[in-house]
């Protein structure tokens, strides 16, 4: 099966895609985008989170064929010519990254939250990140990073 | 494996009939887990996400016709007022990522006794609209939809088109017990709907029987005890008795998520609280 999809603004073509394969496999193994991580393949950890037509989804639970003609943004698409995305910068500064395996999913999810809710409350941050697991940080530094990014973005 | 991508409902029903070996996929939050773990190898995937009408909802008389492919996230943003019980349940499903993809139609398709959409659909008295190319559409009361653990009346050549959910005429509640506030398969769940227009009570029990089910005897009891005319307070003893009757309607088992005894106990507590909260809401609204 051929899958044509727009990934991070560029049209991508993949051939011989197995119809039962996930969008996560397509991105990592066929399109060379290893940012979204493969940890559980059952929607539990959020480390594979990407945007599909603007919605945050677990790429492991989207069939590759369901992405045909759709627009996907991965963590690789967040940073621009002028460097890291503000959420990425805040993760670095707040010490929110240890092994880093959960980081891409959390960064995608946190950037999604800040795009919708510029000044989120703590319960809103927790709710938005409820589907992303981290085994290292204990989450406190991650919350710090999201608060930091929010405070910078809210500045005039 | 083939990937079937109909863009119209007619083509989807034709594909469903022609390919008994195809597995329908909507949000994929149940189907992809099975594929990723090699638990299923269907001959084809029948992707329903390109059929526009499945992703729409509309008011239909006194009901909302909710397309089978509307994700939980939209139930929450769009239907909190008209279908409060279902919207409350939708808020408890998985995570934002799961709610962006998972659908009520997929919950019905899986027909898990733990599915969170089922109790509020039962309490509201919803109907499931299913259709086949050969026989057209039919409507099934949701209480008759489930036939066993992960089984339903859906025939092999049928797809779920929509759910018809009566718009709330009174307060509704949904309660769910689990280990956290997110990402939890219910240990037990309970939904309540007050129907002040017809002096009736609706219930739905989740995760405490082979199928989601109502507690009809408890419904009748509470409807008979409530002071519908002057809306006097609900005595604590009546609420507690209602809770006991709801618990008695369940037939739970012991499993990794909880014991049968705990499920019964938690149902009694949830039902008592839900009745009290809903009745207080109705009194305040008066
Ligand atoms: C991490 C995680 C957390 C979860 N948390 C919850 C939770 O809290 N509560 C809960 O209830 N569920 C939960 N689930 C399960 C799942 O998200 C729900 O059951 C969801 O409603 C499934 O919808 P879907 O559109 O993703 O279904 P799919 O996976 O696409 O399909 C599910 C089943 O329904 C069939 N189907 C789908 N649409 C139709 C149709 N229109 N006609 C006929 N058959 C159809 C499919 O063939 C399949 O058998 C969770 C799942 C994951 C992975
Ligand atoms: S790999 Fe997709 S949620 Fe864990
Ligand atoms: S930093 Fe290691 S899992 Fe989060």
UniProtKB/TrEMBL annotation, chain A:
Keyword terms: 2Fe-2S, Iron, Iron-sulfur, Metal-binding, Oxidoreductase
Entry's Gene Ontology molecular function annotations: 2 iron, 2 sulfur cluster binding; metal ion binding; oxidoreductase activity
Record flagged with keyword Endoplasmic reticulum: no
Highest taxon in the source lineage: Bacteria
Pfam families in alphabetical order: Fer2, Fer2_2
Leader peptide range in chain numbering: none
InterPro entries: 2Fe-2S-bd, 2Fe-2S-bd_dom_sf, 2Fe-2S_ferredoxin-like_sf, 2Fe-2S_ferredoxin-type, 2Fe2S_fd_BS, Beta-grasp_dom_sf, Diverse_Oxidoreductases
Residue span(s) of domain 2Fe-2S ferredoxin-type: 1-78
SUPFAM superfamilies tied to this protein: 2Fe-2S ferredoxin-like, CO dehydrogenase ISP C-domain like
UniProt protein name: (2Fe-2S)-binding protein
Organism: Geodermatophilus sabuli
Taxon lineage: Bacteria, Bacillati, Actinomycetota, Actinomycetes, Geodermatophilales
TrEMBL record, chain B:
Domain FAD-binding PCMH-type: 1-170
InterPro entries: CO_DH_flav_C, CO_DH_flav_C_dom_sf, Diverse_Substr_Oxidored, FAD-bd_PCMH, FAD-bd_PCMH-like_sf, FAD-bd_PCMH_sub1, FAD-bd_PCMH_sub2, Mopterin_DH_FAD-bd
PROSITE patterns reported for this sequence: FAD_PCMH
Pfam families: CO_deh_flav_C, FAD_binding_5
Family annotation (SUPFAM superfamilies): CO dehydrogenase flavoprotein C-terminal domain-like, FAD-binding/transporter-associated domain-like
PANTHER family assigned to the protein according to its UniProt record, in alphabetical order: XANTHINE DEHYDROGENASE SUBUNIT C-RELATED
Protein's name according to its UniProt entry: Xanthine dehydrogenase family protein subunit M
């Amino acid at each position: 099966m051929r899958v044509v999809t727009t990934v991070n603004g560029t049209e991508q073509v993949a051939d011989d895609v197995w119809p039962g394969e996930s969008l996560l496999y397509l991105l990592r193994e066929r399109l060379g985008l290893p940012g979204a991580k493969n940890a559980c393949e059952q929607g539990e950890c959020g480390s594979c989170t990407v945007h599909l037509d603007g919605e945050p989804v677990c790429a492991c639970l989207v069939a590759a064929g369901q992405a045909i003609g759709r627009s996907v943004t991965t963590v690789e698409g967040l940073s621009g010519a002028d460097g890291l995305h503000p959420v990425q910068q805040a993760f670095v500064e707040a010490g929110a990254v240890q092994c880093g395996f959960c980081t891409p999913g959390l960064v995608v999810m946190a950037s999604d939250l800040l795009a919708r809710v510029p000044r989120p409350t703590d319960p809103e941050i927790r709710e938005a990140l409820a589907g992303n697991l981290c085994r290292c940080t204990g989450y406190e530094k991650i919350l710090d990073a999201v608060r930091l990014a929010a405070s910078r973005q809210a500045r005039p | 494996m083939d990937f079937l991508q109909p863009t119209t409902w007619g083509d989807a029903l034709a594909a469903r009939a022609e390919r008994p070996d195809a597995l329908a996929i909507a949000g994929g939050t149940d189907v992809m887990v099975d594929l990723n773990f090699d638990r299923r190898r269907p001959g084809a995937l029948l992707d329903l996400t390109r059929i526009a009408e499945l992703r729409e909802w509309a008011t239909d008389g006194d009901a909302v016709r909710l397309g089978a492919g509307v994700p939980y996230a939209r139930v929450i943003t769009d239907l909190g007022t008209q279908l409060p019980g279902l919207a409350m349940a939708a808020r408890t499903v998985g995570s934002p990522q799961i709610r962006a993809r998972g659908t009520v139609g997929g919950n019905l398709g899986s027909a898990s006794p733990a599915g969170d959409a089922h109790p509020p659909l039962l309490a509201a008295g919803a109907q499931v609209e299913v259709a086949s190319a050969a026989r057209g559409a039919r409507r099934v009361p949701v209480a008759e939809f489930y036939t066993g653990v992960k089984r339903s009346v859906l025939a092999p050549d049928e797809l779920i088109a929509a759910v018809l959910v009566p718009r709330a005429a009174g307060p509704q509640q949904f309660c769910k017990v689990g280990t956290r506030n997110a990402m939890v398969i219910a240990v037990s769940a309970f939904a309540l709907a007050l129907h002040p227009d017809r002096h009736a009570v609706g219930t739905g029990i989740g995760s405490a029987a082979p199928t989601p089910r109502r507690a009809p005897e408890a419904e009748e009891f509470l409807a008979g005890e409530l002071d519908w005319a002057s809306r006097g307070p609900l005595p604590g003893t009546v609420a507690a008795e209602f809770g006991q009757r709801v618990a008695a309607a369940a037939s739970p088992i012991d499993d990794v998520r909880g014991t049968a005894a705990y499920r019964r106990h938690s149902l009694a507590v949830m039902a008592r609280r839900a009745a009290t909260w809903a009745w207080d809401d109705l009194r305040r609204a008066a």
